[in-house]
Amino acid sequence: MGGMAAIVGSLGLPAGNALAADAPAPVVQPAGSDYETLVKLCYNENSYGPPRSVLDAMTGALKYANRYGAPDGGITAAIAKLHGVSADHLVLGAGSSEILDIVGTTFLSGGKKVIGVEPTFSAVYEHATGLNADAIRLPLRSDFRQDIPALIKAAKDNHPNVGFVYLCNPNNPTGMIVTSDEVKQLLDGLPPGVPVLIDEAYHHFVEDPAYATSIPHVLADRPVIVARTFSKIAAMAGMRLGYAVSTPTLIRKMAPYADSMNVNVLAKWGGAAMLADNTALAATKSNIVETRKQTAAALTAMGYAVIPSEANFFMVNLRRDVRPVIQSFRREGILVGRPFPPMNEHLRVSVGTPAEMEKFTTAFEKIMKT
Ligand code: PLP
What we know:
- By secondary structure, this protein is an alpha/beta fold.
- It has helices at 3-11, 17-20, 52-61, 75-83, 96-107, 123-130, 148-158, 180-189, 215-219, 248-254, 265-276, 278-301, 322-331, 354-369; strands at 39-41, 90-93, 113-118, 134-139, 162-168, 196-199, 224-229, 242-246, 313-317, 334-336, 346-350.
- The protein has 2 domains: 3-50 and 279-369, Aspartate Aminotransferase, domain 1 (Alpha-Beta Complex), CATH 3.90.1150.10; 52-276, Type I PLP-dependent aspartate aminotransferase-like (Major domain) (Aspartate Aminotransferase, domain 2, 3-Layer(aba) Sandwich).
- It has a 7-stranded mixed sheet, sandwiched between helices. Strands 1-10 form a two-stranded parallel sheet.
- It binds pyridoxal-5'-phosphate.
């Protein structure tokens, strides 16, 4: 067993595409596993868990566990209201992973290509591979930002064989944003009609005023699909709820690939309760962003450069191969992010609670001394 497989094996986690893609892999708990006690800073989850309001709503919805046609808790109406759109602008998914898959299935048939950067959330490229479609992966700029002119050029060079452009904003694994001006530059520069999938999984953590959601571009009838998830800010990764906001024209193309039963009833009720709990959403954001800044400051003080992140994770430059360091953290009872080639000397760390990050920082100091 070598490379990734060896690392996966050492974590006691399943190998396979989902983990390799950093998708929210089903973390199988083998007998005798120490999963419960491990500090889990590997999947950009939300360590705080859902607030009371969400837990209560999901508990209340358990009575519908035997039903197909139970009330949906108002989830579609709540999302529509949040974004000022009608239901024909929305598709729900079992997590935004399903939305990304639906976009791939819809727009990559007939030998079309997806264009995006690398590293990014690579599940999109892996799904394309499964569809026998090509992925054109462009390098990040030297400052780790996404190269908008290069994306435009690649789309023009490959037109009309481009199925869609993928833009993860903020990007996973760097946490860096594409500014609203750059998004506009991209949309204006692409050949007309090329759909752009803008993955806003980490939208809620952004503070930089140069960033904005791309949903207004949908309202302006641009060929944009915005993907959102309840897995990050809403701490519902295990419940599987995400959605797409797009134009009715693109939604109609995608809808046949979305199973009408894909989202479970607990996720629907929990998601609706979450959208109603602005106090909890704001508290989660400030806790996580504050803890990220404190952790980054501690690492910087130790002499390690941290990429400025606007998400619930960050990357730190180790100035050495990340793979043995990942294993050292595992020995300390801490799961950290996988390697993200070609950034092989950067470690991605999800931001947990202050107590978890203190354990991380202590372990970091110990490991990097060796
Ligand atoms: N998009 C990005 C950028 C992610 O990082 C993730 C998960 O880590 C997802 C989408 C998928 O999240 P989910 O399927 O839980 O909504």
